[in-house]
């Protein structure tokens, strides 16, 4: 899903990629999904309206009504949306079954809705970095593949559409939120020092990094 987001988001901005990732997760099975205004503003904060405008204008997203109506929609009356490139008649980019799609989408929703992120009202760019680190956390709480013992900074910056310095800045915001605990610069990787983890298995079976990582270039 991360590769799909990087390749198919119509614009490179981090907030657009976050919206593309979250909407594609909901529509991965058949190109259609439901979303509420609370979902959109929760993911994107004050950037929800301009991001939706970009996605609709680019033809990546179809809504049955106006963007204002989508942002005002409530859980009892969600907005149905369509992603044309994910409709059944198109080549299938994902091998997921319906249950798997639901589990991954639920995990991502839970991660972005984490109390620490909500409490600090972090913006979409910081939330994308938070979700990226969470998606690359091993069950023992360490970042990245075991053989690397960390995340490749070049890939992190490319996915989040940030410079190394900007990654460090947003990591500092995650430290303030107590999502991460330290940041530094070493050998081109985001590496762990000590790791304390909080498990967010839910139905998805993923663990979420909580403390003690080292951000590096």
Describe this structure in words.
The chain is of the alpha+beta class. It folds into two domains: 2-95, Arc Repressor Mutant, subunit A (Orthogonal Bundle); 113-214, Arc Repressor Mutant, subunit A. The protein has ten helices and five strands, in the order ααβαααβαααβααββ. It has helices at residues 2-8, 14-27, 37-44, 48-57, 67-72, 98-112, 115-120, 124-135, 153-160, 164-176; strands at 32-35, 79-82, 150-152, 189-200, 206-214. A three-stranded antiparallel sheet has the order 3-4-5. The protein has a two-stranded antiparallel sheet with strand order 1-2. A hairpin with a 5-residue loop joins strand 4 (189-200) and strand 5 (206-214). Helix 2 packs across helix 4 (48-57). It is globular and about 45 Å long. The chain starts with a helix and ends with a strand. Residues 183-217 have low confidence and may be disordered.
Observed structural traits:
217 residues, Arc Repressor Mutant, subunit A, 15% strand, globular, three-stranded antiparallel sheet, 5 strands, single chain, disordered C terminus, alpha+beta
Draw up the topology in text:
Layout: H1 2-8, H2 14-27, E1 32-35, H3 37-44, H4 48-57, H5 67-72, E2 79-82, H6 98-112, H7 115-120, H8 124-135, E3 150-152, H9 153-160, H10 164-176, E4 189-200, E5 206-214
Antiparallel strand pairs: 1-2, 3-4, 4-5
Helix pairs in contact: 1-2, 2-4, 2-6, 2-8, 8-10
């Amino acid at each position: 899903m991360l590769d799909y987001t990087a390749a198919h988001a119509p614009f490179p901005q981090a907030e657009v990629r976050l919206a593309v990732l979250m909407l594609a997760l909901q529509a991965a099975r058949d190109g259609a999904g439901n979303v509420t205004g609370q979902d959109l503003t929760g993911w994107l904060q004050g950037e929800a309206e301009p991001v939706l405008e970009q996605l609709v204008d680019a033809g990546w997203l179809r809504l049955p009504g106006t963007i204002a109506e989508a942002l005002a929609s409530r859980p009892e009356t969600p907005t149905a949306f369509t992603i044309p490139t994910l409709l059944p008649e198109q080549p299938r980019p994902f091998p997921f079954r319906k249950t798997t799609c639901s589990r991954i989408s639920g995990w991502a929703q839970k991660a972005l809705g984490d109390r620490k992120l909500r409490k600090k009202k972090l913006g979409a760019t910081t939330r994308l970095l938070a979700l990226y680190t969470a998606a690359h956390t091993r069950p023992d709480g360490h970042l990245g593949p075991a053989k690397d013992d960390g995340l490749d900074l070049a890939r992190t910056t490319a996915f989040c559409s940030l410079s190394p310095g900007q990654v460090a800045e947003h990591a500092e915001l995650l430290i303030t939120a107590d999502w991460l605990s330290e940041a530094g610069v070493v050998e081109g990787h985001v590496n762990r020092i000590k790791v304390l983890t909080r498990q967010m298995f839910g139905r998805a079976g993923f663990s979420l990094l909580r403390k003690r990582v080292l951000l590096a270039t």
